[in-house]
Amino acid sequence: MENFSNLAKIVYRRTYSREKENGQFENWNDTCERVIAGNCKGHNVNEKEIKELLRLLKERKASCAGRGLWFSGSPQSNKIGGAALTNCWFFTADKLENYLLCFDLLMLGGGIGLSVEHKYSSKLPRVKKDVHITHQLTKDADFIVPDSRGGWVELLSRILDSYFITGKSFSYSTICIRGAGEKIKGFGGISSGPLPIVDFVEIISNLLDSRGGKLLHPIDAADILTAIAGLVVSGNVRRSAVLILGDCWDKEYLKVKRWDLNPIPPHRSNANYSVVVDDMEDVHPLFWKSYEFGEAIGIVNRKNIQKYGRMGELKKDTAVGTNPCGEATLECAEPCNLTEMALNNFINEKEFIDASKLMMRYAKRVTLEPYHHLQCANVVKRNRRVGNGITGCLASPLFNSDTLDKAYKAIQEADIEYSKELNVPQSIRTTVIKPSGTISKVFDCHGFEGIHPAYSKYFIQRIRFASNDQLVPKLKEAGHHLESVVRFDNSIDTGTMVADFYIEAPDGFPTVESFDTWKQLDTAIFSQKYWSDQSVSITVYYRKEDIPKLKEWLSNNLCNIKTISFLLYNDHGFKQAPKEAITQEQYEKLSSKIKPIKEDDIQNGDLESQECEGACPIK
User: Residue 173: what are its φ and ψ, rounded to 5°?
Assistant: First the structure.
């Protein structure tokens, strides 16, 4: 790991390095060999292909998505199957059982996109009155919650059954839940103890009690999932990405994250929010208020998703939503199956095109895995959807129309050939552009994540750690600034710390200051036309004075995009923002205090960069 930056080293060791049988942790070569072996085993992959996949990963040029880096080739992957290797799923809020599937998959470390549009959420049953769910620390409660993924899901199942089906009250006990600070095997991390479960039941009960005898509002259907995501923690650090899709005319929904209105429930920080719209004349005026006084609500153009592959190329899709980051177009219960290639790390065009074909084959093999939910398994077998992604785009000369088109066509040829060899359907979609969080950091993309420009020439990158993490005192000793997390409601989360890392972007490439809102939007259209046949995940930075022009741009250009989100460059309302621009003088002063951290001091654990501006938080 000689060529790894301090940030890359910490993100890798803390997120993807597994403990080996001898008690030591993997180095980068160990991880690469485990991952590629796990993908190729049992699929008659020749040695030449295996060797080249290993080279690409070891040189940090191409990789599976983060979940694959953690799980591929591990005993847990063999036990869980495809759900361990795919990042996120999409569901609709028209069935109670979908919440149970969401909970189970979030517990496995994935993310969830959920549509609470009225046409879905209105199909849920009317809420029963006078239901009481009580907590008892006894052995004779009606339900003793097992300390397992299935046990937690069963608790939710009983709650939903009581409130929507039977109307019967019950008591539950958490005496079997492991204590706070105990190690979690499998995914990794540290247990938060039983208290979060008790808090979760109270949140859900209060929400449903308020709707007794009535149908849920779409925002209630969303709050159930964000409360679930708030429970799904590892070492007090959120690893659950959630995207909620709502109606563009729903006034209550459009106020979901308005800082200027009532206090926002903390669990809503677990999600980003978008509306489904294909004509900006359909949006309610309150939509634009979120751009002035809150977290800007994103856009999903379902019409384009279902009509086009790459924009301008007619290619029917059965997708109705997206994953949390918005790049994967998905049916209900379908997972995103992603890979990533760092354009800035390739030597030339040929190496990129050859890698594109190999990563297509890698992702195709993931679709052969068993999936433990029948609903998921069926849609994977039918669509064989994969998403070969690119990152480091704006820091590479390979990000041009001719090269991208050549690589895209090479992927289609590889899909046709490999599908015949495997005797499976061709993939309904093959390419994406992820926001790219941890992978771009491990690959040292220097802030050029996905198609985003670097945030600034000099900036602070904030990373979250559990307060009891062994690395926290090491970071303090090394000179990093750390402080407790401040929640949406201004309360302090003493269980989670935020650490500052200081980044200098390379010379000669765009930053947000020089690459304005309109250049970012042009890049999104360009990428949707020449690379992504699913969608492009981009969070466009804007300033309040840009809003009138932004309205005009979206009215004229919504026909050219599938998904898009926005974030104020300044005054965005986020406390401890994941990225903060600083001056050269500040950078030199802060970075001069930093001492190198020894690799052996970085033990396996869990962290999250809380990339509210677009980068994916999934492991």
Answer: -130, 145
What was the pLDDT predicted at 237? 44
376: enclosing H helix or E strand = helix 374-383
Q: For 76-87, what is each residue's pLDDT tens digit?
A: 898 999 999 998
Q: What is the 3-state secondary structure (H, E, C) of 94-163?
A: CCHHHHHHHHHHHHCCCEEEEECCHHHHCCCCCCCCCCCEEECCCCCCCEECCCCHHHHHHHHHHHHHHH
pLDDT for the residue 619: 53
Distance CA 443, CA 337 (A): 20
- Is 38:72 a contact under the CB 8 Å cutoff? yes
Q: Residue 10: what pLDDT?
A: 84
User: What's the gap between Cα 119 and its chain centre?
Assistant: 26
Query: Distance (Å, rounded) from C-alpha 185 to C-alpha 114?
Result: 28
Q: Is 398 within 8 Å of 346 (Cβ atoms)?
A: yes
Contacts for 380 with CB less than 8 Å, ≥ 6 apart = 82, 334, 335, 337, 367, 371
Instruction: Supply the Cα-derived Rg of the chain in whole angstroms.
Output: 23
Residue 165 in tokens: 């089906």
CA distance 214 to 595: 59
Tell me the two tokens of residue 271.
């999600």
Rounded distance between C-alpha atoms, residue 208 and residue 224, angstroms: 9
Exposure letters 32-53 (e unless 16+ CB within 10 A, then b)? bbbbbebbbeeeebeeeeeeeb
Helix, strand or coil for residue 1?
A: coil
Q: Are 561 and 534 in contact (CB under 8 A)?
A: no
H or E element that contains 48: helix 47-58
From 220, 218, 225, 315, select the one nearest 276 (Cα to Cα): 218
Rounded to two decimals, the pTM is 0.90
Length of the chain: 619
- The CA angle 369-373-379, to the nearest 5 degrees, is 70
Find where tokens 């095997």 sit: 185
| Cα angle: 124, vertex 127, 130; to 5 degrees | 165
Q: In Å, how far are 120, 324, 333 from 375, measured between CA atoms?
A: 18, 19, 6
In eight-state DSSP terms, residue 503 is E
Tens-digit pLDDT profile for residues 478-532: 899 999 988 767 888 888 889 999 988 888 889 988 899 999 999 999 999 999 9
- 8 A C-beta contact, residue 347 and residue 353: no
> CA quadruple 2, 349, 46, 372: dihedral positive or negative?
positive
pLDDT for 381: 97
Cβ count near 258 (within 10 Å): 17
C-alpha to C-alpha distance for 515 and 336, rounded to whole angstroms = 30
Tokens at 316, concatenated: 């029917």
Q: Say if strands 237-238 and 233-234 run parallel, antiparallel, or are unpaired.
A: antiparallel
For residue 564, which amino acid is it? I
Sole residue written with tokens 């599938």: 562
CB 271 within 8 A of CB 325: no
Do 443 and 63 touch, CB atoms closer than 8 A? yes
Query: Which portions of the chain are predicted below pLDDT 70?
Result: 184-190, 233-239, 488, 571-574, 599-601, 603-619
Exposed, middle or buried: residue 254 (CB in 10 Å: 0-12, 13-18, 19+)?
buried
